[in-house]
Design brief:
- The chain is globular and about 65 Å long.
- The longest helix has 37 residues, at 2-38.
- The chain has an eight-stranded mixed sheet with strand order 3-2-4-1-5-6-7-8, sandwiched between helices.
- By secondary structure, the protein is of the alpha/beta class.
- It has 16 helices and eight strands.
- It has helices at 2-38, 58-63, 69-75, 78-81, 94-97, 99-114, 120-132, 137-154, 159-174, 200-213, 228-241, 254-267, 284-298, 319-330, 349-357, 378-386, and strands spanning 188-193, 218-222, 244-247, 272-276, 304-313, 335-339, 361-365, 373-375.
- It is 53% helix and 11% strand.
- The N and C termini lie far apart (86 Å).
- The protein has a domain at 188-333: P-loop containing nucleotide triphosphate hydrolases (Rossmann fold, 3-Layer(aba) Sandwich), CATH 3.40.50.
- It binds guanosine-5'-diphosphate (GDP).
- Guanosine-5'-diphosphate binds at residues 194, 196-202, 230, 233, 279, 339-340, 342-343, 365-368, 372.
């Protein structure tokens, strides 16, 4: 009898344990399921996208399961947040992104450094290296003239000291105010000009992201009404950072779109209007006339245009200078945004722009993600360009 009782008791214990185990597994997997949906990664944690975490809409927050944050984090395997096989990109710095520009320069610098003295060949090699790096013939000649004076004055005798003198002279030529100026009365209006494909829309998107992260209220104006894709692209960036996009009908008047954007910004207390413009019209003179008009109209409403930023693709090398000259004839360009310096660009174009046109490079694009637009820094740039591999 007591044996039967023991058997019954053991059976009950086993059944209870099995049921308990099944319930626990069910609970864990249902929590995983909830997590999978609830933990759609915030924008900034998806590799290669934007930096801003948009706050959850109020309705979402109210209906979200009241699960303690620590519990969610503790249970979250990193693979859920970062897509498998995608590594977080290294932060965009001149050092990390100028590898290609540097490699074009490195061979020549290596042979100069390996010499024991400064000879006529050293100067020739230096000149070749600078011209091949897109510094341009005239700026290279002016730069080396200044370096020759330094070499004489300081009694420089070694190639390493010579290279240091070239670096110092380059930095001196590149230092300029790079701050984007604000207007006294809101909104501040920054126009972006440049030919198609140089990166205007992307630059506006990246800058909008950065400003929004700083708490600024941004309006984007899709002034390139000739390319529907440009407005769509800008819309995606605007949505990502919570900016307002003002767009017009396809083929409509770009000036009207920008004027509307400025009026909207003024009426809604926005502080910055980032205005895209067309990169191509039927003829070049049409384009330049259009830009002059855009500038006039943008200045008519509230606030004022404080920056006209010419966007140039660094990979087009000296051709960028030709474009820059044309744009400066149409409108007063206050700064350059040099994009794609992470690509096959040689880098010296930065120096050419500044010394030939006297326009400061204010921002630099070092990649396609939101965080890849950084303020230009002369010293870091020159250091990265001359760094040994
Ligand atoms: P837009 O026609 O001047 O508006 O040019 P877009 O903004 O559409 O850019 C053209 C292409 O250049 C796009 O594929 C961008 O992702 C790319 N791009 C823009 N800036 C950069 C940059 O700094 N680095 C790299 N690698 N690509 C860039």
């Amino acid at each position: 009898m007591s044996l039967v009782l023991v058997i019954v008791l053991v059976a009950v214990v086993v059944v209870v344990a099995v049921v308990g185990l099944v319930m626990t597994i069910g609970l864990v997997s249902s929590r995983r399921g909830e997590r999978g949906e609830a933990l759609e990664p915030p924008i900034s944690r998806r590799a290669g996208t934007a930096t801003i975490d948009r706050p959850a809409p109020v309705a979402d927050a109210a209906t979200a399961p009241a699960e303690p944050l620590e519990a969610v984090d503790a249970l979250t395997p990193p693979e859920v947040v970062e897509p498998l096989g995608v590594e977080a990109p290294a932060p965009a710095t001149f050092r990390t992104r100028l590898a290609k520009a540097r490699s074009a320069f490195a061979d020549a610098l290596g042979s100069i450094r390996s010499g024991s003295a400064i000879t006529a060949d050293t100067w020739d090699d230096l000149e070749d290296a600078l011209i091949r790096a897109d510094v341009g013939v005239r700026p290279t000649a002016a730069l080396l003239d200044a370096v020759r004076i330094t070499v004489k004055e300081r009694g420089i005798t070694t190639p390493d000291e010579l290279i240091d003198a070239v670096k110092a002279e380059m930095v001196r030529g590149l230092i300029a105010p790079i701050d984007l100026r604000e207007s006294a009365e809101a909104p501040t209006i920054w126009l972006f000009v440049g030919v198609n494909g140089v990166g205007k829309t992307t630059t506006i998107g990246k800058l909008g992201n950065r400003l929004a992260a700083e708490g600024r209220h941004v309006v984007m104006a899709a002034g390139d009404t000739f390319r529907a894709a440009a407005a769509e692209q800008l819309g995606t960036w605007a949505e990502r950072c919570g900016a307002t996009l003002i767009r017009g009908s396809e083929g409509g008047d770009p000036s009207a779109v920008i004027f509307d954007a400025v009026s909207h910004a003024a009426a809604n207390g926005a502080d910055v209007v980032l205005a895209d413009t067309a990169g191509r019209l039927h003829t070049k003179s049409n384009l330049m006339d259009e830009l002059a008009k855009v500038r006039r109209v943008a200045d008519k409403g509230a606030g004022s245009v404080t920056e006209v930023l010419l966007v140039l693709d660094a990979t087009t090398g000296q051709n960028g200078l030709v474009q820059a000259r044309e744009f400066t004839e149409a409108t007063e360009v206050t700064g350059v945004v040099l994009t794609k310096l992470d690509g096959s660009a040689k880098g010296g174009i930065v120096f050419a722009i500044q010394s030939e046109l006297g326009i400061p490079v204010k921002l630099v694009g070092l990649g396609e993600s939101a965080e890849d637009l950084i303020p230009f820094d002369a010293e870091q740039f020159v250091d990265a360009l001359f760094a040994e591999q």
